[in-house]
Amino acid sequence: MLQGKKTFLRPLEPDDIPIYHKWYNDQNVNYWANAAWPLSTMLSEEDIEERFFTPNKDCGRYIILNEEQEPIGTIGYREVNIPARSAVLFIIIGERDYWSRGYGTDALKVLINYLFYQWNFHRLSLDLWDGNLRALKAYEKLGFKVEGRLREARFVLGEYHDAILMGLLRDEYVQHHPPHPPETV
């Protein structure tokens, strides 16, 4: 289990399927996470098990736990490129009581530290839709830079929106977040 200041990350377990089902069928969660409501809110528990719980060597998916070790979201990486040492990150805070309270930023920092310092990744990227300014602010706080836009790539509630592409290089991150050993208890 990986630990941050406010969050813990642990691998998925079969018992997580019902909470995933809840999050992926919550229109507010999906609206902010990927602007896909209602398209991705029609998943059954069997669909979720097949999509998210089938082992995939190019994807790592974790549950985000709060201080009491209760599930509040999911985070991970996909599209691993071994020669380039790069991957694409994703995160969803599924429990709305934890929005805008720093839990997503903390969980991202934990995963970024793991990928840069333990796995020696060189580059991490992610994308979001231009209406999710809360996510944009969190990503910039961690050092991600806007690298481009896909014009009108997302269709949200009857309107087209841009997708924002962001990237973070290891050297840039290390300047502001140097590695440190875990704290002893």
From TrEMBL:
Residues 7-171 form the N-acetyltransferase domain. SUPFAM superfamilies: Acyl-CoA N-acyltransferases (Nat). One of its GO terms (molecular function) is acyltransferase activity, transferring groups other than amino-acyl groups. One of its GO terms (cellular component) is ribosome. Keywords: Ribonucleoprotein, Ribosomal protein, Transferase. This is Acetyltransferase, ribosomal protein N-acetylase.
